[in-house]
């Protein structure tokens, strides 16, 4: 089969489909197809992948014929045959030092199983996937593989594909898809077998090297499908009694004689097969009534969660249905596809569709639960802040859905009610944490409170030094002991230590040494070093003839220190 002939076949099939599609689509039944037999004629663009060949570097064409049975709306089985013209197979291969060529034709027979993914009522199209096995052979394999042409080489392999099936009418449809076949051994197509001949990686001009043991055939095409149902069609009802003979004037119309009560009514036929009244005699055999197939549920939609009293919407799709009954699992049934459950729980909802041919059912689970609002704290506060040492503070919070509360006051004390009052035994900044717990979970809120000692604001006397000296006097130590006691009581207080000296006695250097002497003494009294800060402006900024030999100690908040 030449490439031009295959291409014309593809164009012919596509043209026929274009002519019949508009008229057939107007008559298409929007239902999932039932059991039927069908034939499919299709054309395709074809290619082969393997060795140095590439699927679409030198494409060919293919013509296919398929016969199958649609077992149900979802499943079909089929036998298919392909004839393909693949120019890349005729390029030749380098085998044992010589270049061999072959014909470009390839043939394959297939056994397929096809799954239609969306074959439901109300849809005339469905995507599909297919899989199966194939037997493959190509022209020219005898001479290339066996040297003397001892016999045809057959290949085997799996088939896989996917595509779209469109029903234009109950019998006519279009199908488009892509399909690939893996062929083993390699020699079955290209006539060269890497296991039988020496591999030569550098082929001469115009020849390819065969270095792998399989090929892949690929078809991309479209076809026309014609189907015949596999059930007996409904027959027409028996004709009624013959009409009365026509009368004229006042003469009574003749009537057929009634049979005796003991004998069944019969018809008298003449030799010509007509009744005495001149009408055709009905058939002797009664018609066989049509058998309607049982329905199949294809899809069931249910809400997974509802609140008590909340109405949910349900839906069921089936291949055919004359009526639908819902069993809600709470002791009630109905035909309406909406329902509300009164109490919490898990319910099994069953939809049953009925036709004259039978019924089918499908079930789902619905959970009905009371919606619980989350437990929440919208605000928490501690007042007053700052608070004086020894004075009570009040902790308050606004909660919703809380069954219990707990309050961590930040100094080791706790409370289990709101509002709550508390007195702190020391100064500082404390973090207050409120936790609310309820059916809706848990929520947390934090706030801070600062506790101050009024005596912490007391001013400290300067520390005096002898001229030119850095040693602490007894009076200086007394002053610094009072400063250490203040820091011990007031945890939020820090000290700035500024040394002074005249320029004549050493200026800024001596001033810094005096400030350091004060700092080291306080550290020795148990004061944390990070609560002390020193500087020595000395003679650069201070000239006080009355008391230049001193250190100023200032108490302040540790915030930002």
TrEMBL record:
Subcellular location: Membrane
Disordered: annotated span: 232-291, 532-561
CDD domains with a match to the protein in the record: PKD (cd00146)
Membrane disposition: Multi-pass membrane protein
Pfam family, one: OmpA
UniProt superkingdom: Bacteria
Compositional bias annotation for Pro residues: 254-263
Broad class of where this protein is predominantly found: membrane
Biased composition (Low complexity): 264-278
UniProt KW keywords: Membrane, Repeat, Signal, Transmembrane, Transmembrane helix
Domain PKD: 322-375, 408-458
GO cellular component: plasma membrane
GO BP terms: calcium ion transport
Signal sequence segment: 1-26
Classification via Gene3D superfamilies: 2.40.160.20, Immunoglobulins (2.60.40.10), OmpA-like domain (3.30.1330.60)
GO molecular function: monoatomic cation channel activity
Entry keyword Membrane: yes
Annotated protein name in UniProt: PKD domain-containing protein
Organism of origin: Rubrivirga marina
Lineage, uppermost ranks: Bacteria, Pseudomonadati, Rhodothermota, Rhodothermia, Rhodothermales
């Amino acid at each position: 089969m030449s490439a031009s002939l295959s291409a014309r076949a593809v164009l012919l099939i596509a043209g026929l489909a274009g002519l019949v599609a508009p008229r057939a689509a107007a008559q298409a039944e929007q239902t999932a197809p039932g059991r039927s037999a069908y034939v499919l004629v299709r054309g395709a663009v074809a290619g082969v992948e393997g060795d140095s060949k590439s699927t679409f570097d030198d494409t060919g064409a293919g013509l296919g014929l398929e016969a199958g049975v649609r077992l149900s709306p979802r499943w079909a089985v089929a036998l298919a045959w392909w004839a393909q013209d693949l120019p890349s197979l005729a390029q030749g291969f380098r085998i044992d030092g010589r270049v061999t060529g072959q014909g470009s034709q390839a043939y394959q027979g297939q056994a397929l199983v096809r799954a239609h993914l969306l074959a439901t009522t109300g849809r005339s199209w469905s995507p599909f996937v297919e899989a199966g096995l194939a037997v493959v052979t190509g022209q020219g394999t005898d001479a290339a593989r066996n040297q003397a042409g001892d016999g045809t080489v057959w290949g085997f392999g799996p088939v896989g594909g996917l595509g779209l099936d469109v029903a234009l009418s109950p019998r006519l449809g279009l199908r488009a898809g892509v399909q690939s076949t893996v062929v083993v051994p390699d020699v079955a197509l290209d006539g060269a077998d890497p296991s039988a001949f020496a591999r030569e990686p550098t082929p001469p001009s115009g020849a390819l090297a065969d270095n792998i043991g399989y090929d892949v055939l690929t078809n991309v095409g479209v076809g026309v499908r014609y189907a015949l149902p596999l059930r007996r069609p409904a027959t027409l009802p028996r004709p009624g009694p013959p009409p009365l003979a026509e009368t004229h004037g006042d003469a009574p119309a003749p009537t057929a004689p009634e049979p005796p009560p003991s004998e069944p009514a019969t018809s008298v036929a003449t030799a010509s097969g007509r009744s005495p009244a001149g009408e055709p005699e009905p058939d002797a055999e009664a018609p066989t009534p049509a058998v309607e197939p049982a329905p199949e549920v294809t899809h069931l939609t249910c809400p997974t969660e509802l609140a008590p009293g909340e109405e949910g919407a349900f839906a069921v799709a089936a291949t055919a249905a004359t009526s639908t009954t819902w069993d809600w699992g709470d002791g009630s049934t109905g035909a309406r596809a909406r329902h509300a459950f009164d109490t919490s729980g898990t319910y099994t909802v069953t939809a049953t569709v009925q036709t004259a041919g039978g019924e089918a059912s499908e079930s789902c689970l619905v959970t009905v639960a009371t919606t619980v609002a989350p437990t929440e704290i919208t605000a928490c506060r501690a007042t007053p802040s700052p608070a004086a040492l020894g004075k009570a503070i009040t902790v308050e919070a606004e909660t919703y859905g809380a069954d219990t509360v707990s309050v961590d006051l930040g100094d080791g004390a706790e409370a289990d009610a709101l509002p709550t009052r508390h007195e702190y035994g020391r100064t500082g900044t404390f973090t207050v944490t409120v936790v609310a717990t309820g059916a809706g979970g848990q929520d947390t809120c934090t706030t801070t409170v600062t506790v101050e000692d009024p005596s912490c604001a007391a001013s400290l006397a300067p520390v005096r030094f002898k001229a030119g000296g850095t040693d602490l006097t007894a009076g200086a130590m007394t002053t610094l002991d009072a400063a250490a006691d203040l820091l011990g009581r007031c945890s939020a207080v820090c000290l700035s230590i500024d040394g002074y000296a005249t320029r004549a006695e050493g200026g800024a250097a001596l001033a810094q040494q005096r400030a350091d002497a004060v700092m080291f003494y306080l550290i020795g009294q148990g004061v944390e070093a990070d609560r002390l800060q020193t500087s020595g402006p000395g003679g650069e900024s201070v000239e006080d003839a009355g008391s230049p030999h001193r250190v100023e100690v200032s108490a302040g908040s540790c915030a930002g220190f």
